[in-house]
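Request:
Um, any thoughts?
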Amino acid sequence: MPIRPSIRPPIRPLGWSLTLAQRRRLAIALLCLVAAIVAWRHLAGGSSAASLARTPPPLVPRAAPQPVAAKRIVVDVVGAVRATGLYRLPEGARVADAVRAAGGLTRRADPLLVNLAAPVSDGEQVVVAARGSPGAATAGAGAGGTASAPVDLNSATAEQLDALPGVGPVTAQKIVAFRQQHGPFRSTDDLDAIPGIGPARIKDLQGLVVP
């Protein structure tokens, strides 16, 4: 009996086995997947860019301002203080600061002859008179008296200058202020630069004051 070959149906691709509706759903699903991948990449890139934009710039440390050194002056403190000598003081210091730097007043010092509130200038000599010193006698002579010894224009206090004939308390303060602002007197003729003192007054003070 002859053997007949079996006839098999032709193999068709998978796409041919799907219906038209199934193929449409598959295409839609693939498009959705592609769209989701594109959207995810876009969001991931945007978030990283936004995070970089929000990152604050690095802080650069600023150099601290250098402190300005205070100007110093040098004064010579002599007289009835515990330690006479040269002392460095900040600009704008007073006689009280100079006396404090010299250790303070001794028991021999006469506080009435020291104007602790007076400002001092660079190169000035601060003289602290003692009780019974010639300076004390000059200050005690009063406005109508005369000085027994020449008064130093560069170290005398306002009270000592007030004791000179024709020099009142106002003019005495002007003399002290002038030497503090312009430096020591070089001669008695320098008094002409002070308001209230003229050539006639300078002639009267000849022999009573020394620069």
Q: What stands out?
A: The chain has seven helices and five strands. Residues 135-148 have pLDDT under 50 and may be disordered. Strands lie at 72-79, 85-90, 125-128, 151-152, 209-210.
